[in-house]
Structure formats: structure tokens, C-alpha cells
Design goal:
The protein is an alpha/beta fold and 287 residues long. The chain folds into two domains: 3-106, Ribosomal protein L30/S12 (60s Ribosomal Protein L30, Chain: A, 2-Layer Sandwich), CATH 3.30.1330.30; 112-273, SPOUT methyltransferase, trefoil knot domain (Alpha/beta knot), CATH 3.40.1280. Helices cover 34% and strands 19% of the residues. This is rRNA methylase.
Length: 287
């Protein structure tokens, strides 16, 4: 394999360009860093467009296993795989501590109609997450709670939250690859939920019903909005039930990912525990 030692190499420059959302959207590609994240991507059958390995930074069995896997992929010609120097890797890495592994991968091709509905569906709606790390944290919790799919609405006149931001992938610890996630216009997402008889449970401080008092054991999609503005009017109007999380302090909002976690695990509690929900087999996305 080729070793890249110059930060001016065209492959390196192309990776750096993917720090910008516009460049990501045009190329329909994003960046994955870290041994755990890379390992989960490869384990789910993701074939990278390009992969970069910095031998000097490889640390631990997980990173070594992933690196060997990438070398094999490179040898088969399925992907371009390069060795890079520590200086080059530092230039490309979106964040520090990436363990010497970096992938360029294509966006996940996912639409609402790709979500397979079987059993009793359990979905999460995340509208206008202000920070990529919050959305990544929601995906991480969704993986643990057995959520079937996460829908990221695109409000009118907005590009919506960037589902493919490298920080989303990093904060999710790789759950970006294990939890089906779809970005779709709000009106289309609401119509899809209606067509599949999935109740919308909207979290809002103005609700009278506590989230623990609502029936979340059926076909539900729990919806949360940004800390600053909450859920948009479209989702509040479409809600079958509105719920609130009790707050006794002086701060007027919870972190989005914390709110989502409370709601997700209330669904788990009401259904008798994650092991009895049926798992993500109820809502996998075809790739």
C-alpha cells in the first residue's frame, strides 16, 4: 500500500474538505474516526471509499483488528487504503484521540419507506438538535434502548440537523451504523407515521401529562426538540399526546439527549425491559 507523508496530498486535502457540511453534502460522504467507530462500521458491512491507517498511532486490540481488516480490504481492491504519517493523520483528523484509523464513507442511503415495520414499533424523533454531539448521544442511547429507528425532521426552509456530521458519528460511539436513522421533511415524516398507525408522543414543558403517566407501551414515536425552541408547531399539532418531564429547579430546559433518554427508557420500562421488546429486528433499514 502507498504511504502518504505530505499534507498536500490530494487525498488528504479531500478528507479535510469534508469538515465542511456543504462539501459533505455535495460528495455524499463523511468521515469516521476511532477504533470503536471504525470497528462497528466494518462489522456492519460498510465498505469505505478510502481508509487511512497511521501505524504509529494504532493502540489496543480493537484498533489492531480494525487495521488488519482494512489492510485486507485494500488488498482486495474494494477500497483505497493508505498508510499515513502521524503529521498527516493529525491534519486529517476531525478530533484528537482517533487511534490512528480514519475512514471516508458514503452517506447511508435511507428513506422513510426503507424502515421495515414489524411487531410493535418504537421510534424517536429528534428535531433541530443544536449540537451534533447531542444527536450522537441520542443515537447511542437509542442503540442501548432497542429503538427501531431515529427520524431527524427537516423543517420547512431549513437543511435540518446534519445527521452525517463526523461529530454525530463520534458522539454516538458508532451507533450511527447500528441504529437506522433517516432525515426527512417534517410533513413527510408525520404522514409516514400516520400511515403506519404510529402515535406521536411530543415532549413539551407546556404539557399537563407527566411522561410516566402516558401509555407508551404501544406503537409510538417519542419526539423531542431543541433546548432553545422545543418542538416545532408541526409536531406539536400532530401529537397524539403531549408529555412533560417534571423539573423542580430554576433551569428551564434539560439537555436534549437527557430528555430523549428519559423518554426512551420509560418506553423500555412500560414494555417490561429491553430484552422483551423484540429488538431492532422490528425496524431495520434496507441498505
Amino acid at each position: 500500500m502507498i504511504t502518504i507523508t505530505s499534507t498536500q496530498n490530494p487525498h488528504v486535502k479531500n478528507v479535510i474538505k469534508l469538515n465542511d457540511r456543504r462539501a459533505r453534502d455535495e460528495a455524499r460522504r463523511t468521515v469516521v474516526e476511532g477504533a470503536r467507530e471504525v470497528g462497528l462500521a466494518l462489522g456492519r458491512g460498510v465498505v469505505p471509499v478510502e481508509a487511512f491507517i497511521c501505524p504509529e498511532l494504532i493502540d489496543g486490540p480493537a484498533a489492531e483488528t480494525a487495521a488488519r481488516h482494512l489492510v485486507t480490504i485494500g488488498q482486495t481492491g474494494m477500497s483505497e487504503v493508505f498508510y499515513v504519517s502521524p503529521e498527516v493523520f493529525a491534519k486529517m483528523a476531525y478530533r484528537g484521540g482517533s487511534g490512528g484509523l480514519l475512514l471516508v464513507v458514503a452517506y447511508r442511503p435511507a428513506r422513510l419507506d426503507d424502515i421495515q415495520i414489524r411487531g410493535v414499533p418504537f421510534l424517536v424523533i429528534v428535531e433541530e438538535a443544536e449540537k451534533p454531539g447531542n444527536l450522537g448521544a441520542v443515537l447511542r442511547t437509542a442503540d442501548a434502548a432497542g429503538v427501531d429507528a431515529v427520524i431527524v425532521p427537516i423543517p420547512p426552509g431549513s437543511r435540518g440537523t446534519d445527521l452525517h456530521n463526523p461529530n454525530v458519528i463520534r458522539a454516538s460511539l458508532g451507533a450511527y451504523f447500528t441504529v437506522p436513522a433517516v432525515a426527512a421533511p417534517s410533513d413527510e415524516a408525520i404522514a409516514w407515521l400516520r400511515a403506519h398507525d404510529i402515535a406521536i408522543v411530543a415532549a413539551t414543558p407546556a404539557a399537563e401529562t407527566l411522561y410516566t403517566a402516558a401509555d407508551l407501551s404501544g406503537r409510538v414515536a417519542v419526539a423531542v426538540g431543541s433546548e432553545a425552541w422545543g418542538l416545532g408547531e408541526a409536531w406539536l399539532a400532530a401529537a397524539d399526546v403531549r408529555v412533560r418531564i417534571p423539573m423542580s429547579g430554576q433551569v428551564d430546559s434539560l439537555n436534549l439527549s437527557a430528555s430523549a433518554a428519559l423518554l426512551m427508557y420509560e418506553v423500555v420500562r412500560q414494555r417490561g425491559g429491553a430484552g422483551e421488546q423484540g429488538g431492532r429486528g422490528a425496524g431495520e433499514i434496507d441498505s
